[in-house]
Each structure stands twice: as C-alpha cells, then as structure tokens.
Structures
1.
Amino acid sequence: SAVKEEEFDVVVVGGGPAGSTLGTLVAMQGHRVLILEKETFPRYQIGESLLPSTIHGICHLLGVSEEIAKAGFPRKKGGTFRWGSGSTPWNFSFSVSPKISGPTSFAYQVERSKFDKILLDNAARKGAEVRQNSTVLDVLEDGERVAGVVYRDADAGEHRVRAKYVVDGSGNTSSLYKRVGGTREYSEFFRSLALFGYFENGARMAEPFSGNIFCEAFPSGWFWYIPLSDTLTSVGAVVRREDAAKIQGDPETALNNLIAETGTVKNYLADASRVTTGQYGEIRVRKDYSYRNTSFWRPGMVLIGDAACFVDPVFSSGVHLATYSGLLAARSINSVLAGRIDEKSAFDECEARYRREYSVFYEFLMSFYDMHVDESSYFWSAKKVTSSSHTELESFVELVAGMSTTGFELGGAEAAALRFKENSTEFADAIDTMTAQNESNMSPLFRSAVVRQAMQEGAQVQTRAQLGEDAGDESPLFDGGLVASEDGLFWERSAPR
Ligand code: FAD
C-alpha cells in the first residue's frame, strides 16, 4: 500500500532538554518542526542539579523563565563540597560574593520529570509538533544526505517523515548517533558507575546553603546529595568501575553500605527514610562513562546533548551541555534555512563550539579529581592526572567562591553590561559589585584558564540572552569563525574591523 510520507523542515529525535531547546528555537522562526519522543512525559531522568546559564540564558531564550520560576524548584546558589585535603566542607557560590546575590547568580535543583515536561510543553506552545510514544528506528538517506526518519507509534504503526534536517537528541541510550558516521570514543579517565535512590526527610544544610548540591568524596568515590524539595533528596554514589562489586547484589544493601562509608551524607540521612514507591521508589544503576563521538554532524543530520558526548556528572554540566548544544545547532539550522550561511560553515561552527565547551569541562573535571581526598586509596590514585600541574587548585575554595557567572573578564560583554546598567535598575547593583570585585581583588585563579573557561561560554550565552543587542558585538571564538546574531538565534560572519 502506498504510504504517505509526511514532510517537515526539521525532525528532532528525543524530547529531553537538548531536543526541546532545539525544537523550540527553530519553531520560533516559523519552521515546521516535529519532535518525536519515545516515552510519554512526565518520565524519569537523572541529572537534577543545574547551572545558571541554563536557567538565565537558555530558558530565557525559550520564553519559559516565568514558568520555571513558578514551579517551586529549590534555588541552587552553588555547591558545597567535602572534597580535597581537609575534612571541612567548602562552598562554591555562583554569585560574586556569598553575601551578595545578583539576579542571575543561581540555578535550580529540579525533578527532571517536571523540568523536562515544562520544556517539551513549551516547545509545543511555540509551534513544534510533539508526538510522544513515538520511537525513531532509523534515518532515511538521499545519497550523502540524511533526509528523514522512520518511526514507530504506540500501535506499532511505522511512519516515514522527510525533513531537511534530522537532529539526534535521543540521549545516551539510543544508537541513532551512529548514522552520523564516526565512532564513540570513551574516556580512559572517567569510567564510573552510579548507584542512586531517593530519601524523605534527610537533613538540610544551614542557610544560605540549604539549596546547594552537596558532594562528598570518600575512599571508593563520591556521593551527591541534592535537595529536590523541603523533604525529598536525591542521593547517589559514583564508584569507579573496578569497584563494581560494591554495587552488585541487593541494591538497597549496596547503597546502605556505601552510605556507611561516608561522614556527612551518613549523618544527613540518619533520620531519613528511603522512598519505595512511585518514580523515586527504585534504586537505579547507571554507567556514567564519559564519551564523545568523532563526528557531530553530516549533511542533513546533527547530534546534540548526550547523543554527541557526555562528561562525568560531578560539576552538573550535563543539562548545560545539552541545552547549549541545542542552541548552537538551532543557530546553524536557522541560518541555513534562512539562506544566511552555508551548511558547512554553520555546522562546523556548531561542532567546534560544542567540542570546545565539552573539553573545557573535561579538563576542569580532571583538575577537580586531582584534588584527592586520600592519596593512598586506589580510587584517588587512579584518578591522579600525571600531566596535571594545577597546583593552585588547593585554594580552589576561596577562588571559586567569588566567581561570577554574569561575566568576569568578558571583555565586550562586560562593557555591554555597564551600558545596560544605565537602563536597568534591576542589574545595577550586581554590575557595580561585579566591577568592583574585578578591579580590587581579582584572584589569580580567575586568570587560570581552566576555571575561567569553564564559566566563560555559559556566561556569554546568558549575557546575550538577557541583554540582546545591548550585549554588543562578539568576537569569533575561533579565527575566521562565526559569531551569534544580536538575538542569539542565528550565526553571522563577524563584521570586518
Ligand atoms: P535525555 O535527557 O536523555 O533525553 C533524551 C530523550 O530521548 C529521552 O526522553 C528518551 O526517551 C528519548 N529517546 C531515546 N531514544 C529515542 C528514540 N529512538 N526515539 C525517540 N525518542 C528517543 N546533568 C546535570 O546537568 N546535572 C546533574 O546533576 C547530573 N547528574 C547526573 C548523574 C548521573 C549518574 C548521570 C549518568 C548523568 C547526570 N547528568 C547530570 C547528565 C544528564 O542526565 C544528561 O546530560 C542530560 O539528561 C542530557 O540531556 P539530553 O536531552 O541530551 O538527553
């Protein structure tokens, strides 16, 4: 029988943060976008601790800030770590100073079932067609080009959809990424397993840190402790692959045994009870091996989010990388469909920026793991980076405590912030503080490339989203490369100076 093929401009595989970011930003330009999602939302996902640029940069561009603000997610002002030498926990704050919080110097801890649904519903509201319970099986090809997908609906019916672009945002589980060519390379350094569950009535840190993520290193690895509401806490252990035996057998016993190895997490959970029903009732295991694919795009197809690469979860970078790559690929597709930039330039820029951001976090995390708790323990000595020379990281605590995501050393963006200040009382205080901080006590590690870069591009996205044309002209990230348009939704060739 003749099957009628549908046609869209763009088919997005997966309705996670990467897919819905891309789908929304392309649909907002009036293009016909179809998002195909295997599950029916709300669905469970791990990755609950977010970074500010996702909230104040991407969510702002998506037009979903208010809804996110009203959802009741705990505010995350930073992280508290029992990590490195010494047993005293230290705080890392997103604001310029722990005492002063700027309007954008926080993120949220989110229940991903709720957060992801808000983003996907918003994509539909902004014009994307969303079909859930629809599993993409393969891509269609037209010679060298990817030209659409085949998917299966809830009733096992198969459908063919033609599209100018197929975007793979299907996360770490799908194998669709292979159709872009190349291979998936795993990191030798970050190969761990995570075991996690949920607790009611765990203790909270004292204000102003009660919304922070707490991370505790212990001999076999490290724990996360993430407040998801006043009473609900996400608790997970990350252990190295050689310790896999520790998470085998009965998961409840395994988790309890690991908790017993900690200092603070054990105390926080002393009066807590594990959730045993609903989406949080299960103890789950995830391989969190880090990887990146050797290619991120081919004509007609691009990979975003975990489909392209994944890096260790300790610094909560997953959703940032997912939504950031959604933005980059949206700029590329919008630019090509509008006839503004050729396909190769647009997607090379997208891939280069995504790779760079990934590498920046990768390096940053290597340094982070280099601060061993216990040199003699196998976990930490295996994590030692022989070539690393980031000795300044001993004083990481004070240094990052003053870090601003609204833009230290941002050059053009900082100058733009000052211009913007004249029109905005909302930002005035934060901008004054930031500037004063930069001039008077700029700490040496702010100049350390590893720390600065880890925050820089996120800050740039955030500044552009908040300030639009007031953010001023950008310089290309790469020689001869492209820059974001004023609204942040296209690429442009930078104006000759
Ligand atoms: P996903 O969120 O996985 O979404 C992909 C979607 O595609 C899913 O909804 C899936 O159902 C759908 N799909 C899959 N296959 C198909 C198909 N064939 N057809 C149609 N749909 C399909 N990140 C953080 O930011 N903070 C954290 O604290 C954090 N902690 C983590 C802890 C652990 C142990 C791990 C392993 C990861 C953690 N992450 C964290 C990372 C985070 O989970 C991911 O980076 C993030 O979810 C990636 O988003 P995505 O949109 O790329 O993919």
2.
Amino acid sequence: TENTRFALVGNPNSGKTTAFNLLTGSNQYVGNWPGVTVERKSGKYSKDKRLTIQDLPGIYSLSPFTPEENVTRDYLLSDDYDVVINIVDATNIERNLYLTTQLIEIGKPVVIALNMTDLLVKNNIFIDTEKLSYSLGVPVVNISALKNNGIEELIAVTKKALRPEVHLHYDERFEASLTEISAVTQLVNRFELIKIFENDAKILEKISLSDEQANEIAEIVAITEKIFLDDRQSIVVNERYQYLTSLVAMVERKTQGIRLNVS
Ligand code: BGO
C-alpha cells in the first residue's frame, strides 16, 4: 500500500506518548482536532515514511464523556485509519484490556503492544502473551517504550495484521526467492515483491532501492534463473499458470453437456 495509517490508542499513562515519540522522532505534526481544543498529534514512522501514525487522546472506554473520549471514539469509528495499535500497560492489564475489548469489537485490525514489560519481573508478574493473543484473537507484542525494546517487531507485526495471511503459494524455489527479496527490501506486499523479481520499472521507480539492495536482488534473481533455467519474467508467468492448472483441476469439472446440434 502507498500509505498505511496506524492509530495509536490506550489508557492515559499507558506509555502512549513515549511510544509515539519513539516511533516518530522529529517527524511530528501538531494541531487541533476540528471543533474542540484537544491537541492532535500525528507523525510518520521514522524508519519508513510511508507509515503514518495518528496519536489519539488517552481514554478508558469508548463510552464518551469528555471531549478527548469523543475525539478518540469518532476517529476509531471513521475510515481514516487501517489498523489500531493498542498500547496496554502490562502492570495493569485488566483495567487496560477493558478498552481493548471495545476496540476489537469495532472490527478493524487490532495489535496489542504490551508496554512496560521491563517492570514485570520486578513486580513479580508473568503474562502468558501467547494465551492472551490466542484468547483475544489479536497479535500481542511485548514492548518497553521507555527502554526502546520491541518497537521494530511491533511495526512488523502491525504491518502483517493489515492483510490476511492467505496468499497464493507458488513453487518453493520461487517462494524462497521472494522471501529473500522481502528480507533485503523490508517489504511484505506480495505484488511489490513479485514485481521487483520481474524487474518492473514502475515499481522500482516507486520504491527506489539502494545500490546495495539492487545488487543483492540481482544476485537472488540470477540464482533463481539458473535454478529454473528460465528468465525472470517467464518464471513468474509459468508459476502463475502452474498454480492455476492445479487450482482449476480442483475446482472445475466437466459436466455432461446437452448437445445443441443433433446431426
Ligand atoms: C513518567 N516502561 C517503564 N518503566 N515506564 C514507561 C514505559 C515503559 O515501557 N513507557 C512509558 N513509561 P506516557 P501516556 C514518570 O513520566 O508516555 C512511563 O499518558 C515521571 N514523570 O516514562 O506519558 C513514562 O501518553 C516520573 O513516566 O503515557 C511516564 O499514555 C517518575 O510511564 C509514564 C516516573 O508515560 C507514562 C515516571 C515525571
């Protein structure tokens, strides 16, 4: 996607401001929400300017009483964002997850950033994040905004939460090549990865790879071409048709047609 929009939500004092500052650095814009004197802060992720992050006023629930709660609720019910990052104070999860239950019910993708995990050992708390994630049906990432831990993983997980996991799975040797291109470029979008593999001029212009990245990709492609004994564009065409041949074999059956012409 051209521009991905993260909304940052959490209880007051969950560490949302600390996380927002860490994510955006100096790429912040400050204004006001329309019609109210509530400060509006947004920014771009410092390591990928295509990610915009909208900070939302800290709230305890989506039943609004204050102007801040109203702003946050209206935004969350709008179409102005793609995914919610819910900052949860790990030292006070029951109170914090009260908001989470309501965020999940909105229906947009939610990722829980379990913050303040640096305090858990000292406070004799253990949180089974796998169970938490499984029970709520949303990804959970341990972070410490204060110590700058887990932030890159949070971003990676949040990007993934945007798109369903299902993708068309091609030949393993081709998939391996796409995985390597993903590692070099930090991109996850299948369309972009495949277009890079093909050497599509428009996509390459859009993402502007460094020389080093371009060289690494050239090497990956060269190896794949050698394995397939084919050129990069034909490999993609063939992979698609091989995939479709077995797909169609599964889903299509010939029926005994009624003959229209009896001769
Ligand atoms: C004070 N770990 C720890 N240990 N603390 C954190 C973390 C974390 O991961 N993240 C945030 N904090 P905000 P909201 C403070 O300000 O970002 C701390 O309201 C203090 N201040 O440093 O403001 C963070 O935006 C004096 O702590 O939260 C801040 O969501 C003594 O949590 C507080 C101790 O973070 C709230 C702490 C003068």
